[in-house]
Design a protein that fits this description.
The complex is a heterodimer of chains A (137) and B (305).
Chain A (H helix, E strand, L loop, with lengths): L8 E8 L3 H7 L9 E9 L3 E8 L7 H7 L4 E6 L2 E6 L6 E3 L20 E6 L4 E4 L7
Antiparallel strand pairs in A: 1-3, 1-4, 2-3, 4-5, 6-7, 7-8
Chain B lengths: L11 H16 L12 E6 L5 H12 L3 E5 L13 H8 L5 E6 L4 H8 L4 E6 L5 H15 L5 E6 L6 H10 L5 E6 L8 H9 L5 E4 L11 E4 L10 H7 L18 E3 L20 H19 L5
Parallel strand pairs in B: 1-2, 1-3, 3-4, 5-6, 5-8, 6-7, 8-9
Helix pairs in contact in B: 1-5, 1-9, 2-9, 3-4, 5-6, 5-9
Classes of the chains: A mainly beta (137), B alpha/beta (305).
Chain lengths: 137, 305
């Protein structure tokens, strides 16, 4: 197996082992038609093992989604084979249409077209609550 | 323009101002009889109600205003599949202020995103009921003379009881209040109330399963009904509905100045033999509901006399 180094694109490193496919799905990477390398259970001195995603295309990445999944993921923007920027992640204040509210009593269960919005209510425990019914996700 | 969706949308100062205005209305009703002349209140009740809808309508009438609306989803375009947003936009063309009740949680918030006129949440599922909270606060203030430093027992359905959630949130901003949560295991307050209201604000609370064991500690007991409409499974409702019934015998150890509150309607959770006890405040509470809604309507319409 050969994983080519990236000339132009994005590397998502330090993904918790096993979460690469979740990141792939939640970022909607299946919609891209470029090469995407998914490396799982890579040895890491810091984490023991980790996952890495390599996206071979410049792409406006949704940092809120990524920060929600894991704010410790490192995002490197690569241009002409060089890292030109590292983006810092944080827990987003709001999540819009990333998760669906599962409360059957919530207005989102009957109004199909409204956005599912969650708000960060407890940063320490990473708790997000639906803005409509206050159920946690 | 301000909406009232959650009880904490109002600051403590704003609540105090509304309660003071309500007390002034009680003391001089004639002064306010034309306060909302030529103003229209729409009561949009997608779920049945007696007290809340009628007290809103009576409140607007006593302020000299007019009322329009519907009292069930079946008699609105919701029955044809209209969205909450479209209903609110439409009604905003005809009314100056909207009071809205909906069985789904968050519906009034959704309405407030598109509304051109102030929206008052008149109850959304098992979630919030801020005008009942204002009613409860006015009742406590009139009965006790203060909104701080007392022990309140909340009894019955603390899981789906929206009045309980709203009241806890509102009272959490006042000093020196101790909470005794009296409920069966299945109907305990949601975790977020414990973590994000009590623990976060270092508020003293305890959870017990019978009212007898704490009756002598209470300055206020807030009774609630186990609500059939909140259960998906009727067997669960039948098993739990008679769990807590307050009767004369249970009041034997109660303080002589206990205040017994209930948002009503009751089914059987307060025995009728308690009704004539001077400590029973629930019908005075229903009357307070009209006055506090008068004060709220005036405040939200920015009307003064």
């Amino acid at each position: 197996m050969k994983i080519e180094s990236i000339q132009n694109g994005i590397v998502l490193d330090h993904i918790t082992a096993g979460k690469a496919l979740l990141v792939y799905h939640d970022l909607g990477l299946d919609q891209l038609d470029c090469s995407i390398g998914i490396l799982q259970n890579v040895k890491s001195s810091k984490m023991g093992k980790k996952d890495i995603l390599k996206i071979h295309q410049e792409y406006d990445i949704n940092l809120d989604v990524l920060g929600y999944i894991d704010p410790d993921i490192t995002v490197s923007i690569i241009k002409d084979g060089q890292t030109v920027e590292k983006k810092k992640l944080k827990l987003p204040e709001k999540l819009i249409n990333v998760r669906k509210c599962k409360n059957p009593r919530c207005i989102t269960s009957v109004e199909q077209e409204i956005p599912h919005i969650f708000k960060l209510t407890d940063e320490e425990n990473r708790v997000y609550r639906c803005i409509y019914c206050e159920a946690d996700k | 323009m301000k909406h009232l969706i959650d009880p904490t949308d109002l600051t403590v100062q704003e609540i105090d101002d509304i309660l003071d205005l309500a007390i002034d209305i009680i003391n001089d009703k004639e002064k306010y009889q034309d306060a909302c002349k030529r103003k229209k209140l729409a009561t949009l009740f997608f779920e049945p109600s007696t007290r809340t809808r009628l007290s809103f309508e009576a409140a607007m009438m006593e302020l000299g205003g007019n009322v329009l609306g519907f009292s069930s989803a079946d008699s609105s375009s919701t029955a044809k599949g209209e969205s909450v947003g479209d209903t609110i936009r439409t009604v905003g063309c005809y009314a100056d202020i909207i009071a809205m009740r909906h069985p789904k949680e968050g519906a009034p918030l959704l309405g407030s995103f598109v509304s051109e006129v102030p929206i008052i949440n008149a109850g959304d599922g098992g979630h919030n009921h801020p005008t009942q909270t204002l009613t409860d606060l006015l009742t406590i203030k009139r009965e006790k003379g203060r909104l701080d430093n007392f022990t309140i027992g909340l009894c019955g359905d603390l899981k789906f009881g929206r009045t309980v959630h709203s009241l806890i949130k509102a009272l959490s901003r006042y000093e020196g209040i101790k909470y005794v949560l009296i409920s069966p295991n299945e109907l305990k307050v949601p975790d977020y109330i414990i973590t994000e209201v009590f623990k976060k604000n270092n508020i003293e609370y305890k959870e017990v399963s019978t009212m007898e064991e704490v009756m002598d500690e209470l300055d206020i007991i807030y009774m609630t009904r186990v609500q059939k409409e909140r259960f998906f499974n009727e067997a669960d409702y039948i098993r739990l509905k008679d769990t807590y019934i307050l009767d004369k015998s249970k009041l034997k150890t109660a303080k002589p100045d206990l205040s017994i509150l209930h948002p009503l309607p009751r089914v059987n959770e307060i025995s009728t033999d308690v009704d004539n006890d001077p400590r029973a405040c629930y019908f005075r509470q229903a009357l307070n509901g009209k006055y506090v809604r008068m004060a709220l309507i005036m405040t939200m319409l920015e009307v003064t006399v």
